[in-house]
Amino acid sequence: MLSYTLRRLAFAIPTVLVISLIVFLMLDMAPGDPTGSLPLTIPLEVREQIRQSLGLGDPVMVRYFKWLYMMCFVEPLHILAGLTGWDIAPEGPRILSWQTRSPVGDILVQRVPQTLWVVGLGYLFGILIALPIGVISAYRQYSWFDQAGTFVSMIGFSVPTFFTGVVFILIFSVWLGWFPSMYDTTHVVRDWNSFVFQAKQIAMPVAVLALFNASQISRFMRASMLDNLNQDYVRTARAKGLGEKTVVLVHVLRNSMIPVVTVIAIGIPTVFTGAIITEQIFRVNGLGDALIRAIYVSDWPMVQTITFIFAILIVLFNLIADVLYGILDPRIRYD
Question: Domains of the chain: which residue ranges?
Answer without folding.
Answer: 2-30+105-328
